[in-house]
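Summarise this fold before class:
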Amino acid sequence: MWLAISALNLAIAVILGAFGAHGLKARATIDQLSWWHTATDYFFYHALGLLALAILAKVSPQFPIKLSFVCIQIGIIFFCGSLYVMGLGLPRILGAITPVGGTFMIIGWLVLAWNAMKFAK
């Protein structure tokens, strides 16, 4: 399941990146394109991180990844999603959601670090 979710994230990131590069370029403002680009970058980085967690789960099934994976996925949805909707021209107030997503991403990576330290003992 983890691997499938990771692969879907990566496929969606490619689709949204291509849409931003080709579909929005003629219609969007510089700010909108910048938000779209930032969202796509972070989407890719964190989708690759999810892929690494999925591989870790296969290689070391006893290593706990669920909480990290879920937090990062929620972070992608809120962080990248809020930037994408702003990139589409929806109200900038939706940018207030962006830090919530970033916080979830950070929590996911910190939980991974915590579990890695516990697992190493």
Observations:
- The chain is about 80% helix and 0% strand.
